[in-house]
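Hi V.,

You were right to ask for the full record rather than a summary. Here it is.
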Amino acid sequence: PPMACDLKPKDPLQALAQINHYLEAHHGREGIFATLFFGILAPDTGRLRYVNAGHEPPLVVSPTGRIQALKATAPAVGMLLRARFDTAEIHLQPGDTLIAYTDGVTEAGTAPGSFFGISGVRQAISTARIEGGDYLNLLEQAVFEHLNGADLTDDQLRGVIKQLDLDLYNLARDGKNAGATYRVGDRMISK
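Predicted structure:
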């Protein structure tokens, strides 16, 4: 049934609260809920404000290989009528890569106990960093190797965001001098 709500919420947390209330009020008995991660990235500063509502923890990989998991800030949407949704904040440094994925990645396996798991994700990410940073393809390849020919049992979604050097970001934003080539640090950039 439809529910009266503000169709233009003032901020993402207000929208989450409305979605949560709707799911719990109208579908709570069926146990319907959703995990989600969303963030707002300011590419000029690397500031990422995010909500992780029971979702698999996105990972931030530094250029040196350090992996940091982004903690959950709230329960899954629709689990609790009066759930509190909080934000967290990190600053992505130049060269940091944010990797998000669904539970279809961690739960890929042929039987309970044989899941790919967060350890499989971390191993694939470490390998991808060493082999040039093709995180999406190497993570997918690692999952299918783990399945060893078995079918997927859940959908999978993976996403990657890489924080550029601030100088590169500002250069790309500047619409002047189209076709010019610039040296920024050890990189050559063509516009």
